[in-house]
Each structure stands twice: as C-alpha cells, then as structure tokens.
Design a protein that fits this description.
464 residues, Spore Coat Polysaccharide Biosynthesis Protein SpsA, Chain A, 8-stranded mixed beta sheet, two-stranded parallel ribbon, 13 helices, globular
Length: 464
C-alpha cells in the first residue's frame, strides 16, 4: 500500500526510549490509561454480533419460507444461513471488535536481543538481491544473522546472493528442491540465536520491520512464542488482479489478524514474515512438511497453550500472484492448509480460549464457500432475470454492515501506515472490484482446496 520509496523513512513519534527489564519486558507506565478488560470487549462484540444475527434471522424467515417452495425447508435454512446470516455475524463481530481495539504503542528499546533471519528461496533470482539488501539496511539495535537457504534453485539465485556484499549472510545451498519446510528447518539447525525470524525471498522490508516485530514480542503478554508481521502487496500496480489483492491484504488479512490478536491469539504466524522462539520451534519439531506449514505450525503452538501476537507496524511488502492461474493455486493451497490444520490438531476446538470464535468461523469456511459457489452465484444470475428466490432484497441486508466494516478497516489501517510514515496509495478501481468480486475469485480455489485435502489428493506447492 505504501510507496516503496517510503520504505526507508524512519518511524517518528514522541515515544521515549525504554531499556530491557530483567525479564526482557518493558516497565509499565506510571499513569496508564483506563483499561477495559479484554473479556469485556469479547463479550460485547459477541453480544452485538449475535444480536445482529438474531435480527437478520427474524427478518429472513419470509425469505426461507419462499425458498422452501423450491427446496426442502432444512435446505432453505442452510442456504440462507450461508448466504446472509453467518457472514453478517462475522462482519458484526469484527466491526465491534475493531471499535473496541485500543492497541498500546510499541515500546522503544536502546538495544534488542540478537536475531537469526531465515530466508528460504527457490528460483528467486529476480528478487533475492533486493531482499538481502533490505535486510542489511534494517535499523535494528542488535545483532542480525541472515541465513539464506537455497532450496535447490535451477536459476542464478545463489550466484546473485553471493554477489551481494553482505558479510553477515550465511548461504546454505541444498542439493535438491525439498519444499519450504525442509529449507527453513535446515536454516533453523544452523541459526545461532534464540529469536528466529522467517522472511520470504521476495519480501521488501520497512527499515523498522525487525525492530518493531521484536519489540512487540518483548512487550506482549507472557506465553507469547511467536509474532506475525504485517504483510502488504509490493507489485500492486501490475494489473487488476494485484490491485484487488492489495485491498485483500490491507483490509481482509491485516484486520482479521489484528482482531485475533486483540483476543490474545493470532491464528497464523505466516511464513512470509514472522518471529518465533527457538525453544517453541524445537518443542513442536520445527516447520511441518505440509502444504500449509505455517498454519499447521501455528496451531500446534496454540494447541499447547502458547500465544501468537501481531505486530501491525512491522510492515513488509511481498509479491502476489499476477495471473489468475497462480492466484488460484495459492488460494487453493491456503484452503488445503486450513483443513490440514484441523485434521492434525482437532483438539484445538475442544478447549475454550478468547479467540475460539475465529476457530469456529474457520471451521465454517468450507460450508460458506460452497454455499457461495453453488447457491449465491447461481442465485445472482437468476436475479438478473427477475427470479429472486435465492438472491433478493433480503441479501442486501449484509451490505450496510459490510460497507461500515470496510470504512472502519480503512481508517484503522491508514492510521497504522501514517505512524510508519507510509501513505495509502489510491486504488479506487481495485477497492470496487475487491468488494464486488474478491469472493468470486477466491471461492472456486478454496472449494477445490478443501476437496483436495478431504480426498487426500497428491500435495503440490504451486505458488506461495
């Protein structure tokens, strides 16, 4: 979202510098602002979301009755739940959670602990020099060890990486391509420090990204063993598809992670840019050899009672798919990774935690995507010819809350960017198409991913 020329401008603000306490956590402020318990915020957001869903259900009863003329009443009920009621509940829950989110500023430290940065690369000759250069330019008040793991690239990735004059870069050249998880685990075995940071090989970093993600880790509650960074789109000006994805990352992904962290647990520390403790990684055996290695790893940590934070000001920019074929493969892989996580860690649903709402919403994704693909889209086409039994005036009840959600998301994210001296670039065309067509682009890939994992189809990486 921010111009790349702004990436190297420093963060500014009146925050005073703080040093480590004996436990590595910052001292508490002398006059903290009035604190609203997180449990109260959760209860209020859930109450409002259930209230919205209840009102929508009451108003939708005539719609269900009309639809039941064509299909059995239970089927009509499920269709209306999937098209309107459940999406409305999710919109309302995120909206009211964002209204209550008052995130404290990230503390500043005079020095920070050393970190090992793992960069797994496969055929990244066009990006690796810029990624390593950005890492070297980080304003990080501590030692940074960079480990590039080349996963059997067939291009000039290794040669170009060695040409970058970076004495603190250790290059591990694996003889053959074994997948991202194996590459990261190879780097983990060579890493010297207790804080491990994963960075994708095509990632361009804001110059405070490392400092902010480590500072967030140190200031987060005890039990935090990982922190997800804020991923944005670098190649957003390439075509209409990347413009849509710019809003998906800026609104959808970032805001959901922010809301999850409000309730003491982001669900995924994504591989593109996240921090982990070495001890936690060793406890779970490192990155699993799965299609969705980052979500499976994250849920393994959460299942054990650990917490994953989110550093909204640890900003990086990454390349996203520029063709629908590659986009389809990416979202198919993400959907398959979600089912992998549920299959490998089913007990995550049996222990109540403050972020449990998001686990159950994730559990509903296969149902919601299938209803959208098989019912909403045909109903939308039928509505164009005057047949409103599937998609009609009642469907519009979700739109006001959706628009309010997007307005609030934009306000919150714009403020976060301004704190990092980044500006939100104009992308009205992309926003309109994001609101109208993003789900249309994602649902076919997601349904294919769910089906592939349920049927245990052969696993391939595709694209990131």
């Amino acid at each position: 979202m921010g111009d790349l020329k702004d990436l190297n401008q420093a963060l500014v603000g009146p925050e005073h510098e703080k040093r480590f306490s004996d436990q590595g956590r910052p001292p508490q402020p002398e006059n903290p602002r009035k604190y609203v318990p997180v449990k109260f915020k959760l209860a209020f957001a859930q109450l409002m979301a259930f209230g919205w869903a209840g009102l929508s259900w009451y108003l939708a009863l005539p719609w269900i009755a009309d639809l039941s003329v064509y299909v059995p009443y239970p089927v009509a009920t499920l269709v209306v739940l999937g098209i309107a009621i459940l999406p409305g509940f999710a919109f309302a829950f995120i909206f009211f959670s964002l209204l209550l989110d008052r995130r404290p500023p990230t503390p500043r430290y005079s020095s920070l602990p050393p970190v090992s940065v793992l960069v797994a690369a496969y055929n990244e000759q066009h990006n690796i020099a810029e990624t390593l250069t950005q890492l070297r330019k980080q304003n990080y008040p501590g030692e940074v060890e960079i480990i590039l793991i080349d996963d059997g690239s067939k291009d000039d990735t290794v040669r170009i990486a060695r040409a970058v004059n970076a004495p603190n870069v250790n290059i591990i050249a694996l003889p053959r391509n074994g997948g991202k998880a194996k590459a990261l685990n190879a780097g983990l075995r060579q890493a010297r420090h207790d804080l491990i940071i994963s960075v994708d090989a095509d990632t361009c970093m804001h110059d405070k990204a490392l400092e902010n993600i480590v500072s967030r880790f140190l200031s987060d509650p005890p039990g935090t063993v990982a922190v997800a960074g804020a991923i944005n789109v670098k190649n957003s000006r390439r075509n209409w598809l990347t413009r849509i994805q710019e809003w998906d990352y800026f609104h959808g992904i970032a805001v959901v992670k922010r809301t999850q962290s409000l309730y003491q647990g982001t669900l995924v520390a994504q591989g593109a840019f996240s921090l982990y403790t070495r001890q936690a990684l060793r406890e779970v055996g490192g990155w699993p050899d799965t299609v969705g290695e980052d979500i499976v790893l994250s849920w393994n940590l959460l299942k054990r009672g650990y917490r994953i934070g989110y550093a909204e000001n640890a900003v990086v920019f990454t390349n996203v798919p520029e063709t629908y074929a590659r986009f389809y493969q990416q979202r198919r892989r993400w959907a398959r990774g979600l089912i992998e996580a549920f299959k490998l860690h089913p007990r995550i649903l049996t222990v109540f935690r403050m972020n449990s709402t998001f686990f159950y919403l994730n559990l509903l994704y296969p149902f919601l995507d299938t209803i959208y693909l098989l019912c909403f889209l045909p109903g939308l086409i039928a509505a164009c010819f005057g047949y409103y039994f599937l998609v009609g005036p009642m469907t519009l009840a979700v739109l006001p809350l959706g628009l309010m959600n997007n307005f609030l998301m934009y306000h919150v994210q714009k403020r976060t960017f301004a704190d990092s001296r980044l500006r939100v670039r104009r992308n009205i065309f992309g926003f309109i198409f994001y609101v109208l067509f993003a789900q249309l682009l994602m649902s076919p890939a997601s349904v294919a991913g769910y089906y592939a994992e349920f049927m245990n189809r052969r696993k391939t990486w595709g694209t990131k």
